[in-house]
Amino acid sequence: MTQLDLTFVRAQFPAFSSPVTAGQSFFENAGGSYPCRQVVDRLTRFYTDRKVQPYAPYAAAQLGGAEMDEARDRLAAMMGVARDEVSFGPSTSANTYVLAQAVRGWMGGKGAVVVTNQDHEANSGVWRRLAESGVEVREWRIDPETGHLDPADLARLLEDGQVKVVAFPHCSNVVAEINPVAEICAMAKAAGAFTVVDGVSYAPHGFPDIPALGADVYLFSAYKTYGPHQGIMVIRRGFGDLLPAQGHWFNAGTLYKRFTPAGPDHAQIAACAGMADYVDALYARHVGGQADAAARNRAVHDLMRVQEIEAVAPLLDYLAARNDLRLIGPRGAKDRAPTVAVALQGAAETVAERLARHGINCWGGDFYAVRPLEAMGVNLDKGVLRMSLVHYTGPDDVARLIRALEEEL
């Protein structure tokens, strides 16, 4: 496997040459990654040349509409789905909320849904509130010591055939263990249930191959995948066509408009094509040759993962050797996303403030993961210190972080 050329990679991100952010070691990627140059360029161009109502019969409108179409086409091709199965919305939390309202109407107060207590609240609270309509809510619970979700526990929840939806994360934003999505989706399908996968904490480490995962819905946030502040929801036709439309009635015949009740952000949708540009740039630099969009995406995903596993391993080794903190989630770098949360003896946010003096950018708190932290017995008043890497994080950044932790903990 070719290693990522970090000099090339970091040259694709304006933040690394900005007078504000250059020289800082950025470990707040789980809260939002730096946008790549390709996205910034497209967003600037749209606001400069195309910021009109798209699709009208004049040049600027036609160019704007074409760029919006390009974004949907290229992201769909990367993820192996049909173009109309890709919906854009203001955030993943908003997209999940709208989806849940559609499911509420479809279920009609009957049946059950499964949620986990490993999730970010966006893919948990909206489904739990279906209980107000008579839907049974079943909780798939994590191991309180490790944060692990055991598929055997899910099997028991599915036994009676009453479950219609299983909502779970690809990985948690604090536990970070990579869940076996394909296995879970297959289990749910065999029991007659649809799956809603929160990919927000995984997609920054490689865009999903949706057919391989088998998810009926997969959600993630573009601002965490090097893009603009948009939520992206892939909803497969077999599920989407069953659900009542949540947008304007006259748009109900178009799948990607069924779950978009408000007008989309034209400029940010268009700029999302820059994420595909970036994936293609990495592919051309490191692999080359002819391949379709999905194959290029898979290759870049693997490159990112190799880089991240190598980068995060020294940090995990260092933290595991300390006896004054609790490392949340798996010990092994291959088993997790490189989002590392630790429970400290004192307030995590105070430590994050001290680390900032060393040029370390991270944060402390609950990160809307209140349920998993409570389940694992973490003091929410203290929270966790979260240090999150992506593929552009270099070994020098990690070494700098370890030195700062050694001084401040």
From the structure above, extract its key features.
single chain, alpha/beta, 4-stranded antiparallel sheet, 41% helix, 14% strand
Q: Can you characterise this structure?
A:
The structure is a single chain. The protein is of the alpha/beta class and 409 residues long. 41% of the residues lie in helices and 14% in strands. The protein is built from 16 helices and 13 strands. The strands form three sheets. The chain has a seven-stranded mixed β-sheet with strand order 2-8-7-6-5-3-4, with helices on both faces. A four-stranded antiparallel β-sheet has the order 9-10-13-12. Strands 1-11 form a two-stranded parallel sheet. Strand 3 (112-116), helix 5 (125-128) and strand 4 form a beta-alpha-beta unit. Helix 6 runs parallel beside helix 7. The chain starts with 5 loop residues before the first helix and ends with a helix. Residues 26-401 form the Aminotransferase class V domain. This is Aminotransferase class V-fold PLP-dependent enzyme. One of its GO terms (molecular function) is transaminase activity.
